[in-house]
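COURSE: Structural Biology Practicum
ASSIGNMENT: Worksheet 4, Part C
STUDENT ID: 0417
INSTRUCTIONS: Below are two proteins. For each, the amino acid sequence is given first, followed by its structure token string. Answer the questions at the end about the second protein only.

PROTEIN I
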Amino acid sequence: MARQFNPSRLRLARMRRQFTLKHLSELVGLSTRMVSGYEKDNCKNVPPEDTVLKFSSALNYPADFFLSDNDVEIVNSDTVSFRSLKAMKASQQHAAVGAGSLGLILDGYFDSKFNLPHVNLPDLRGCEPEAAADELRELWDLGSLCINNMIHLLEKHGIRVFSLAENTQAVDAFSFWKNGKPYIFLNTQKSGERSRMDAAHELGHLLLHKHGSPQGKAVEMEADSFAAFFLMPRRTVLACSSKYLNIEDVLDLRPNWKTSAMAVIMQLRTVGAITEWHHRNLIIEASKLGLRKTEINGIDREKTLLLEMYLKSLENDGINIKDIANKLSLPLEEITNLIFRFGVVSTGKAKPQSSPPRAPKLQLVK
């Protein structure tokens, strides 16, 4: 194989599969020390072709993925916001961070094809969460209206939003800044209401904790508070207050903000619309209905608009998802898992082109 073996890509693929060095070594029939050496940036013993093919088979990644002069951008886990590191295994954290690196690769591909939206996020480090939520609503001209679709709104203002297919509730969502660009990854195992709250929570991290360490109880509480006030502004919640509110009323209020019943109850208490006694009783009633984990007649989970526009434009030029995977030397499911298309495969054949297409200008509407 003429091209150079890339250790960083082997390390990334292993992280994505949640394999230990010992497990991968057993699969390819090598010592742990040898595999560890192949992952080091200063690797001098380049693996032979048959070993690369064994790595490819064991990790289910194309052999070409490991043979590239382009290093993958490894996301620094210290810059990533994770809701609860205690509930997360190290392998799950590494796999999620690995998904972030794959998102950077895919984003780079789209960036080479299209004029992506300009990042429109203010620096609100040091602001109180509610003040930050109000300031961002004013900047984005949202007023007090219900946000119809959080993902569409984030994409419109330059935030790269990708999906996660991690089969675990331990990884809710995460976000980070990289090369001046904000990224959010959402686990689609959550309900539509909770996914919206996760998106707003990660937006809070991007705004309030830029270039800091977005981990720890204090910053998580700040992001939670920002998310609640961004989705449910104080004045709109107070307008719905009543000392006679019952759980049926709470369920009826959810469409005002497209949030969960539990989030509505918590925000009612936060803004002083109900007493602690009233809050406690509503929580008890909500728990009896199973509303801590699910929603009654909940909303659909939100999906991307921008990525679908990109994919549609590429398909018009004869480029389907499988072509993108081949171009990037990535497994097809890694691509579909990032673009809210789990298990969906485009099988159309690429059409020949007489000349490279120009990067189209795609404009999002509010």
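PROTEIN II
(use this one for the questions)
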Amino acid sequence: MNSTPSVRKRPWYARHSAGQPPLWLIYALLLGPVSFLILFNYIPAISAFYHAFTQWDPGKPAVWVGLRNFIELFYDPIFLKSLQNLLKLGVFVFLVNLSVPFVVAEMIYHLRSDRWSYAARVALVLPMIVPGVVIYMIWQYIYSDAGLVTALMEALGLHRWIYGWLSHPKTALWAVACVGFPFAYGFNVLIYYAGLTNIPQSILEAAEVDGMSPLGRILHIHVPLILAQVRLLVVVTLIGIVNGFESLYILTRDGGPGYETMVPGLYMYLNGFVFERMGYAAAIGLLLLVFLLFSTILINRFVRTDDYEPGS
């Protein structure tokens, strides 16, 4: 009898389809990025979580203090003031970041010339290649005594309205908030524009046949169908507001005048690298992390995008 030779199966790590690299090579190539991710992202995050419950100064061993850092934060007037400033900045930034780019995206979307639409998108993207530090330093000059704002007020004869824009308690916070004017951020505009271009043409044609006005189409068709983009921008904007302090550090250095421009992110940085209270800074960072985590979960839960039906 002729026996059929047995086919020996290759191990899982050596299996691969035609034209595909072997699995062992794929896993080997993934090992490097995953290792760096663990080393430079997850381990520091775990370390910060632990040290938030310690008194940890550079050069000294960390001493476990439990919830003392968090209790101190609850009574810290500077931290409480930073939360008030963050709330004021957050409301303003949310309004301009979500509204102005949407208006600009609508204008680009309604351009009849594809060439002009492309040119407008390129014009919005070009400022994104400029480093943020350079932009903040330009705005620092704009707000200086010899800057553009002061020169404009003098030209209009409004000498009584001239302040030290970044050094006066009445104007410092709002001067920082206005950095980036006219707020047509290229990333936000492109996200909105991508959502608008993905709206089915049949829905827009049906709305036009029904006699819906242009404003009605925007409110009842465009806005509900780009809620996925709105949700993304809400999350990204929230993270930027809570974690960002680069502009405040460059423009005011220490959250001044007084603590009128202090925000939790800047207070965390100053405690960690100026006051050398690493454990206290880690506690602030942990609070910000928990806030962002729960806020993101709530946003994803309540901003629904999969159950909308046009005309319902």
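ANSWER KEY EXCERPT:
Q1: The longest strand covers residues 54-55.
Q2: The beta strands are 54-55, 63-64.
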